[in-house]
Write a structure and sequence with these properties.
Pfam families: PK_Tyr_Ser-Thr. With 185 residues, this protein is mainly alpha-helical. Helices cover 41% and strands 6% of the residues. Helix 2 runs antiparallel to helix 4 and helix 2 runs antiparallel to helix 7.
Length: 185
């Protein structure tokens, strides 16, 4: 198998470890979000749920284009919500329905995309300093969420973290990201 070489590494590395986050302009971060959203839209059109969408599973090339990787936990969607008892995902990015082993749809990926939006908005690690077990309990049982920033992107993040049936589609997210162009976090 031959794949594209992604020179910049993962989005997680670029934001949190490379020392380059100050070089990520607001417009560049929005473009990255659009790249991820378009990729997710393609995945969902093929009836695939990623289930482990996070910044570490988004790779960045020299042109700063972002592509989704690591489909090891993905599942093919059916007409009804899927129930899968295998553990999936990384707690800081996981949708509550996945944490609770409840039936899920592609909307679990939208929740995770909201966490990536939060990361690119704040340039911070989600749930930094909180042990994963506490994150799991807080998100699944207490309804806790990261502090939501002000403005249109904050409202979009909040909508991505709503109940699954109320979460926006990738198409709606792409449209709403246009409203964020001139309102940085």
């Amino acid at each position: 198998m031959v794949t594209e070489y992604m020179e910049m590494g993962s989005l997680y590395y670029l934001i949190h470890l490379s020392g380059q986050k100050k070089r990520l302009s607001w417009r560049r971060r929005l473009k990255m979000l659009r790249d991820i959203c378009r990729g997710l839209m393609c995945i969902h059109r093929m009836k695939i749920v990623h289930r482990d969408l996070k910044s570490a599973n988004c790779l960045v090339n020299k042109q700063m284009t972002v592509k989704i990787c690591d489909f090891g936990l993905s599942r093919v969607m059916t007409d009804t919500p899927i129930r899968d008892s295998s553990s999936a995902g990384t707690p800081e990015w996981m949708a509550p329905e996945l944490i609770r082993n409840e039936p899920f749809t592609e909307k679990c990926d939208i929740f995770s995309l909201g966490v990536i939006m939060w990361e690119l908005c704040t340039l911070s690690r989600p749930w930094e300093g909180v042990p994963p077990k506490k994150v799991v309990y807080a998100v699944a049982n207490e309804g806790s969420r990261l502090e939501i920033p002000e403005g249109p992107l904050g409202r979009l993040i909040s909508d991505c973290w709503a109940e699954p049936d109320l979460r926006p589609s990738c198409g709606e997210i792409l449209t709403r990201l246009l409203d964020c162009e001139y309102t940085p976090c």
